[in-house]
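lol so apparently i was supposed to do this last week
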Amino acid sequence: MMNFKTICIIGMGYIGLPTASVFANHGIKVLGMDVNADVIGHLKAGKVHIFEPGLQKLFHQALESGRLQVATEVSPAEAFIIAVPTPFFEDKSADMRYVESAAESIVPHLQPGNLVILESTSPPQTTVGLVAPILEKSGLKAGRDFLLAYSPERVLPGRILEELVGNARVIGGVDPASAEAGRDLYQTFVQGDIILTDATTAEMVKLMENTSRDINIAIANEFSRLAEKFGVDIWEAIGIANLHPRVEILRPGIGVGGHCIGVDPWFLVEAAPETARLVRTAREINDAQPAFIADLVDQTAGGVAGKTIALLGLAFKPNVDDLRESPAVKLAHDLEFRGAKVLAYEPFKPEAGLPGITQVTTLAEALSEADLVLLAVAHDQFKALDPAETARQTPAKAVFDAVKAWDKPKWEAAGFAFTGLARRF
Ligand code: SAJ
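anyway here it is w/ SAJ bound
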């Protein structure tokens, strides 16, 4: 069994930072590296730059222990973990430049016997086809001179710290020794099962998980459109269907966002366009959902042109501060395109500075001149809004709940005309 004393984690984002903190708190010396000097500056000052429950405390504890350091340069270590983003280009093809440069930055430091782990979600065969050849520029060979594995992160934003420790972990090696070394490293803190396989299988597993969730959300969104067409309350219908022991329909909404589920399925489409047909269709359905909601709001409001809409929430899902690929942002643009004036309020990121979005920093400001209040993201603080109190803060006489977070009778009792996505009750 290998015993790792030092690791270097490349990328101090949503995955790298919690992972670095957890390792350090379990007795390993960690260097957290990020090319962004602002991020490192923040971290050095003891402040985490992202919102995730419990992370600030965990990070602080790791710094205090003296085992976690952060820097803008890679340093030698027994193991290297790559946890950088893999976004996509305009044409939906994978942008692997961060992974490439992370691998390049390891090359000068790579020693025989080191372990390198890729955690970033990547197209099939990235580990063997892209990362191995870059690392081999060191003159060392993957599987023979150094160990190389793929181990995807699978944690849910909002529950990252629990899931990092509790979830099962898959580790795919370029050879069995690499997978075993990965297990030795992660079992430092992982309490869930650790499953060993080959690198390409582990890459597929990750893509299959997020793709199947995307497809399941797409069918829920398509059902919501059908329900609109047939005058059915989709929430009632799903509730009843889900009583069936083998049916579990997810929630329709304003679309799918974030840097994972809305992105990863495209890696399969790009890798095998002729084969991944259902995958592509699901992506297209979910991507079109913000425009569908904008049309629905437009119809139910008797036209949004010239009206002011208080848009509640810009994050990609409830109770997170992440606005990447957010359908709420697309919805704001779509409503503006239809002639509305949108005042967006996002409590987790009140000043995001998004181009083309008018953001206000308080709820009161959003409400004060609204004709319509549109709930886009079911943050706890929006769910808890009191309709009577809201009525006192706004001239708006109508609300639209796109995510079934509000109680229709209560809002009606407060004097609002209430509509929502496929909503009768
Ligand atoms: N959404 C719906 N309806 C639902 C569930 C979600 O519209 O019933 C929307 C959300 O509002 C959001 C998007 O889908 O816009 C994605 O949210 P999510 O909570 O389903 O997932 P993510 O993107 O936060 O995290 C996913 C997780 N993957 C799976 O559950 C299979 C997580 O475990 C992964 O680690 C993460 O992607 C990742 O990093 O890949």
